[in-house]
Amino acid sequence: MYDHLLSPLRIGTMELRNRIAVAPMGVEIVDGDGHVREPVIAYYDERARGGAGLLITEVAAVAYPMGANSSHQIALSRDEFLPGLQELTGRVHAHGAKIAAQLVHHGKVSRLDVKEGRDVWMPSIPDWHGSMSMAHDLTREEITLLMGSTGGAQPKFKAVTKQDIEVLVGWFADAAERCRRAGFDGIELHAAHGYILSEFLSPQWNRRDDEYGGPVENRAKLLCDVIRACKERAGADFPVWCRLDAKEYRTPNGIVFEDTKRVAQLAESAGADAIHISAYADSTSGIGF
Question: What DSSP state is assigned to residue 77?
């Protein structure tokens, strides 16, 4: 078993020294301006030093500060963020590990948009407001901190137009190309956990009647458009994969595994080099509707 675990693996053109991957985790030790500095670099440096073959960063906002969950999030929206990102990838590579950035637009969970008064982008205006089971999952202190992250503001939802969708695809493609210039070895598109790509995949959140809504093939169109755009901008040889929910728990008419299998096939056809399977349990949909 250990021989297999420690054997090399390829994801697209990327060769890993072993099959140990550090999964993305919400660390949020980034400064409040989105720049990667020494505390963040040191965090990943230590994990690369430990011998993992692949590190995947915490969520990195493609349009920062828009679509971000927090100001303390890796930003990929402008070239000014490149120096810190280049230092990060260089330090990880010095230990023989590879590193991928996890790209995201948080959609309905864009707490920073709520706090700063921007529209919250979604496939459709929601008519369901979460399972409201947060009280069973979190302590009172945790609930207070979560609610405080929006500054007490209420979200202003916007059902995105086709023009907005073109902008969204462009943000992901720009970020992918910027990641390559920063020295990342690949990218993971976060299409799970209630963020905007997964909202388009979910029948609960996506009630559109155009080519982006309805059957699973239509609901997967945005994800596939993003995969193709990232490959086009960053290069066909640049590894791109996506994280999908196997199931959307506590969500009526949410994502189910049969649909996810079909989405995985469509993503592969669009150019995805791998699929990262996760799951998601709604509490209050993340922003306290």
Answer: S
Distance, CA of 183 to CA of 178 (rounded, Å): 9
- 282 is written with which tokens? 């709604």
Q: Is 249 marked active-site? A: no
**Catalytic residue from among 195, 212, 249, 280:** 195
CA distance 124 to 206: 6
Task: pLDDT tens for the chain, 289 residues: list them.
Answer: 678 999 999 999 999 999 999 999 988 899 999 999 999 999 999 999 999 999 999 999 999 999 999 999 999 999 999 999 999 999 999 999 999 999 999 999 999 999 999 999 999 999 986 655 555 565 767 555 555 556 667 899 999 999 999 999 999 999 999 999 999 999 999 999 999 999 999 999 999 999 999 999 999 999 999 999 999 999 999 999 999 999 999 899 999 999 999 999 999 999 999 999 998 886 554 433 3
The verdict on pTM exceeding 0.70 is yes
